[in-house]
Amino acid sequence: MDNTFWTFVGLILFFVLIVYLKAPGRIGKSLDDRAVRIRKEIEEARELKEEAKQQLAEYQRRRREAEEEAKDIVAAAKREAEAMLKETRQRNEEYVERRTAMAEAKIAQAENDAIAEVRAAAVDIAVAASAKVIADRNSGSSSGLFIDNSIAEVRKRLN
Question: Where, if anywhere, are coiled coils annotated (predicted)?
């Protein structure tokens, strides 16, 4: 009996002890449990990946909707600005037309007033000249009443 024999006996006892303690079953069960756990993790990872894909698609859809909404808002703002600009231009044109009409009316009134003043001045000058001519011609006392009446009547008719 040498050392090789006792080593062989120790090896056999080791294998018997391993079989007695059911180490291969425990190792197999441990490996099976680990495989099941890995499968669960892989399945969870797949589910998370699918969920992430769905969320990504949802976010992209929302982004596209937001971009479309932003485009719509910008287009509406442009239309509104154009409408406001058009309305402002129209108001300005109407204002200028009103102011022009008012200025023309004032000018026409000033012309009428000037014409009336010139006529009145002409009448006054004509009446004064007539009075002087008649007074010079008729220096008598009885014709003075007739002259005053004639001058008053001329003034009424000319004004």
Answer: 31-98
Residues 6+ apart with CB under 8 A from 18: 24
CA dist 153 and 141 (Å) reads 20
Q: Tell me the residue range of the domain where 95 lies.
A: 3-158
Instruction: Check if the beta carbon of residue 120 is closer than 8 Å to that of residue 151.
Output: no
Express each pLDDT in 113-130 by its tens digit: 999 989 888 888 888 887
70-74-75 Cα angle (round to 5): 115
> Burial of 143 by CB count in 10 Å (0-12 exposed, 13-18 middle, 19+ buried)?
middle
- Asked whether 135 and 150 are in contact (CB, 8 A), the reply is no
Query: Which residue has 């600005």 as its token pair?
Result: 81
Which residues does 69 contact at the CB level (< 8 Å), separation at least 6?
none
Into how many domains does the chain fold? 1
Interior angle at CA 20, CA 18 and CA 25, nearest 5: 70
Residues in the chain: 159
